């Protein structure tokens, strides 16, 4: 056991503590070029997610989401789980005027490379049944994605605001 005087306090460190220090220092993070590659990968995945909404197949669109994903849309209760997300998407796809467009404004990948998020602007065009007219709503979005073993990236949180 080693006794260290750190000014006003005394620390006692055992030999086992020193074994942990090199392991902490040896943590490897992706290089800048690896981060850039991961960000391109995440943006491509995001493009697939949004394109799937315009594709007409709610089950395929929902497959981009984790089994336990949450979707938050203003004015609606949160949607939990891939099956509920597919049911919600299918309601939108029944509208022949439904269209979803987006502009990515920011992409970030975690140092661990297994979490990422994107944010940007979103336009949703749909038929307003009360007014019998086509409307477009502009909003913002935040997608949180997780790399899941054997499945690649999946959306875990989808927030429109």
UniProtKB/TrEMBL annotation:
<dbReference type="Pfam" id="PF14534">
    <property type="entry name" value="DUF4440"/>
</dbReference>
<feature type="domain" description="DUF4440">
    <location>
        <begin position="42"/>
        <end position="155"/>
    </location>
</feature>
<dbReference type="InterPro" id="IPR032710">
    <property type="entry name" value="NTF2-like_dom_sf"/>
</dbReference>
<keyword id="KW-0732">Signal</keyword>
<protein>
    <submittedName>
        <fullName>DUF4440 domain-containing protein</fullName>
    </submittedName>
</protein>
<feature type="signal peptide">
    <location>
        <begin position="1"/>
        <end position="25"/>
    </location>
</feature>
<dbReference type="InterPro" id="IPR027843">
    <property type="entry name" value="DUF4440"/>
</dbReference>
């Amino acid at each position: 056991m080693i006794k260290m005087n750190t000014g006003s306090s005394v620390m006692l460190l055992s030999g086992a503590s020193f074994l942990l220090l090199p392991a902490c220092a040896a943590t490897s993070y992706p290089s800048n070029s690896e981060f850039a590659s991961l960000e391109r990968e995440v943006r491509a995945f995001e493009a697939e997610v949004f394109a799937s909404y315009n594709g007409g197949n709610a089950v395929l669109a929902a497959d981009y989401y984790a089994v336990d994903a949450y979707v938050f849309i203003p004015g609606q209760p949160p949607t939990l789980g891939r099956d509920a997300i597919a049911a919600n998407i299918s309601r939108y796809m029944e509208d022949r005027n439904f269209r979803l467009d987006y502009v990515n404004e920011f992409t970030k990948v975690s140092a661990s490379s297994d979490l990422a998020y994107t944010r940007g602007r979103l336009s949703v065009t749909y038929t307003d049944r009360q007014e019998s007219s086509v409307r477009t709503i502009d909003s913002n979005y935040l997608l949180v994605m997780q790399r899941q073993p054997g499945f690649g990236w999946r959306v875990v949180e989808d927030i429109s605001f």
